[in-house]
Predict the 3D structure of the following.
Amino acid sequence: MQLNAIVEALLIASQNPLPSEEIARLVRSRVAEAEDVRNRETDEGKAPSELPEWLLALSATTPEQVAAAIEELNIAYQNDQRAFTIIERPKGWKVFTRLEFGEFVRQLFPGRKPERMSGPAMETLAIIAYRQPITKAAIEAVRGVACDGMIQKLLDRDLIRIGGRAELPGRPLLYETTDLFFEHFGIRSIDDLPNASELRKVKLPEPTQEPTPATDADQQLALGTIGIPAAAAGDASDQDS
């Protein structure tokens, strides 16, 4: 039994992406399990069953070997014109249908139509992606306009999330991209973005105003991420004041 076939079986059976390290561990665990059975049979006075050579050869499987096996699988898929391929995402490898079959696969989901983001939303998302973690004031300094609505839309679509608070006066919220962002755009990390290293070093305009402590906008954006409507947030603020 070849390693690439084993890797293929694991990826098909798993509901979640699997990193190379985890695949290698699973393979080695199977060998260790077989060796434990043989040792137990020996301890019980039984004639231990011999392990096949191909299984013993997998006892030292490495993540590099897993990556090489996946590359072989993808080459075979391409040569055989299969409808799927294996792609690495931030959380690991996963089997995907090829892009050219998308229009056919979409027929399985007639109620779901592709949504296009507006230009302002894409601009806001790009700033966050390249310069994360970043505050709302810094985003607005680049765009030159208020971004509360755009940020809330991106939060609602789970493309960005609140990643903490900046060590600045008022402790403003910091925004960063989510795993869904990487899935949506088909990349593994920020380094895969076009010109990532150069654009992350470009000096950004300074915010015109220093952030104020616990602004209403920040409170509403934070509450919105856990499903509390902005109106309800306003009511709560009125009651506390």
Notes: DSSP finds twelve helices and five strands in the chain. The chain has two domains: 3-108, 119-230. The mean pLDDT is 84. The longest strand covers residues 84-89.
